[in-house]
Amino acid sequence: MATIYWAGDSTVQYNGIKTYPQTGIAQVFNLFIKPEVQISNHAKNGRSTKSFIDESRLAEIYDKITEGDFLFIQFGHNDEKKDDPARFTEPFSEFMVNLEKFVNVARNKKAYPVIITPVERRNYIDKSEPCEFDHTDYVAAMKQTAEKLNVPLIDLNSMSRAELDRIGLEASKDWYMHLPVGKYPYHMEGLADNTHLKYAGAVAYGGCIARGLKELGGIYEDLLLEDLI
Fold it and tell me: Fewest C-beta in 10 Å: which of 1, 27, 205, 227?
């Protein structure tokens, strides 16, 4: 059966005890897929498309991915960091060029690329207003790349925004790294992080991706557990 190779950043990566309870989406995605489907998670904290490529992480995927596998491409958070030349990419130029490199890695090995827009940060204007959009240009660039290259796209950014709007300001703290004193390891207590996910958030947004695969149908839907279809 196929392997899903996942390229991305800290919102996707596998986490150990040192970053508990932080949880990446790919870390929990086995909940949604058939047991014979494997996940090879190459996502790493702080990486952009540029730094991922520069560190030969994409080359490692190229060496391993085979015909019939899938490459999930999920970036945006770190490409937008203008103060860091090692990671920053202009959305409608270098970022799009880099995305095409990821797509070509999959297609050159007869695997299937899927572009996934970045998960929304937990940003609220106030208690009565929905969260503000982040990543706008990068989401648009991913959509343009997907259209240009005829690559399936799952718009996790829009789906995660809708979920944040649905559950609201306080409940969404349970999805992100908001860690009350007395409940977590001392070095993590009091953290108020609106980007990285806890287990519940990773599962919720993993469910969004699963829904996106179901909507794509065909070989993408076939990755999912039968009772999700």
Answer: 227
